Amino acid sequence: MALTRKSLKAMGLTDEQVDSIVEMHTETVDGLKDKLKTAEEKATQLDGVQKELDALKAKGGDDYKAKYEAEKKAFADYKADQTAKETKAAKESAVRAYFEGKSITGGNLNIAMRGAKDEINGLELDADGKIKDTSALDALVGGEYAALVVTTQTRGANTATPPAGNGGSKLTRADIYKKDDHGRYVMSTAERQKALAENPDLMK
User: In Å, how far are 36, 60, 135, 179, 188 from 50, measured between CA atoms?
Assistant: First the structure.
């Protein structure tokens, strides 16, 4: 350090300039020493980790890896299953609300939900949980499910078939499944479904 100061003074530098240069030189050297020390410590740590890995492999590292992969797959499968269940529940909720909006309620709604499984699975929901395209459900309501739509009409009583509780009688299971002389049901499928929905006791 004395030789360095002497050399700097020989260059015509003032004491203050010499001190400043020496101080900067010292900080640089100290910084390099710190970096070297840190690098040596990391190298030592890496050596330790490598030794642990080698020891683990010697004890059957492949078995541990297989167990880890199995656990990882099981967790991924669980998450996928939960997501599928949540998606299914969201779709069913949206479709139930759709049918109710089309005046398909009560027992008729249960029938409609059971029969529309394929349509429900094929639906897509938007970010708000609403059905993106209702065309498949529209077709059901306008066709096969037309008889399940509850309509409210104001009209006089039909004296030929008076309503139940006013001299008339509720349909029995035998009435609903009655067949003609050719072995065919007298009531259509939709009519039978509607009759069962209006008489829930018969579905027990």
Answer: 21, 15, 62, 83, 77
